[in-house]
UniProtKB/TrEMBL annotation:
This is Amino acid/amide ABC transporter ATP-binding protein 1 (HAAT family). Gene3D superfamilies: P-loop containing nucleotide triphosphate hydrolases (3.40.50.300). Residues 265-276 have a biased composition (Basic and acidic residues). PANTHER family: ABC TRANSPORTER ATP-BINDING PROTEIN, CONSERVED COMPONENT OF ABC TRANSPORTER FOR NATURAL AMINO ACIDS-RELATED. Keywords: ATP-binding, Nucleotide-binding, Transport. The lineage of its organism: Bacteria, Pseudomonadati, Pseudomonadota, Alphaproteobacteria, Hyphomicrobiales. It comes from Rhodopseudomonas faecalis. GO terms for cellular component: plasma membrane. One of its GO terms (molecular function) is ATP hydrolysis activity. Residues 256-276 are annotated as: Disordered. CDD domains: ABC_Mj1267_LivG_branched.
Amino acid sequence: MEHALEVRAVSLRFGGVRALTDVSFSVKAGELFSIIGPNGAGKTSIVNCISGRYRPTEGQLFYHGRDITGMKPNARAQLGIGRTFQNLALFHHMSVLDNIMVGRHHLLKNNFLTGSLYWLTGARREELEHREKVEEIIDFLDLQSVRKATAGTLSYGLRKRVELARAMALEPKLILLDEPMAGMNFEEKEDMARYIVDLNEEYGMTVVMIEHDMGVVMDISHRVVVLDFGRKIADGDPADVLADPHVRRAYLGEEDELLVDPDDAPDHPSASEHAA
């Protein structure tokens, strides 16, 4: 299977501080891939390198075989890389509908040279096409009831869903999700997990996700990479990664109940129940 993303020996320094050291992994086209690790492990730093917000100090990044290491974020977005942020980046004074429409701006055909002719010929038609796409996303994410609401008035869980909608509006082939379920209650997490799986399976998007909820990671990820202090310590199938002794020490703790065999400790909750 073709690699959608390859991270090759990426290091990132801020002055004398090393945020990432020689991190390598690959994501296959069509995968739902999770990046996990303790706070400060470098998860958001690697996503920022992939999206173009940061440029690696060393190493290279490839998207479908193309070197994107030196590309600006806008150029990567035009190639089909979209993202959400750990801290919400919505326009709080704008409606849900308008926030999602902002995500379509990379797809607009109008430019400085063709502007006058465009507005005389195709503007109305293109606007209708974009609105149809946005309405499809609103239906997909069950946002019909708040489509005209001001984004800043919504609950945190709904705002996270609107940010996902805006990232979807770009029609990315690869979507980067930075803690899409942070701050959500159990029901909101269940809904978001379902949307992410459907995004991967129905829309065919390759998903790279940072997530702390180990129950969710175990349930929906195809593969997982684990970072600790900016270094990769494990990479592979979720069950194998969770059982890795390095992960046990660095991320979960030696005696973490997530790693106890249920047959040996029948009174303990399951991995999914404990993590939830």
